[in-house]
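Trying the structure run again after the queue cleared.
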Amino acid sequence: MYDNQYDISAHISEIVDYLIELINENSVCIIIDNVQNLDEVSIEMFERLIDKEDYKNNVTFVFSFNTDKLYSSTKPYQFHKKLNYYMHKSLNITIAVQLMVFLMMMLKSILLIV
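Done. Tokens:
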């Protein structure tokens, strides 16, 4: 995928379809850090993934932004706004609840390790 000859943007739909197949096989949590540094093609891929509504299994997305490094004219900024909108929509309250449960489970796991 990172071959200089491979044009990711030309195959974004195929990549998204493949990731959806993987997600439909198992419940997953996708964690992406430093989203403010992603390119437009990566943002487009994640937008397509979160806009899909009929996954067969549970999927949780965790996106981490350094908001002090977000610039209003960028695609990551627009993506951040879109995620904030989703979080405030009443239909997507379950996403916030799932995220909180996941974070609590992660915290318990970390505390068990320490």
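Strands lie at 28-32, 59-63. Worth checking whether this holds up in the mutant runs.
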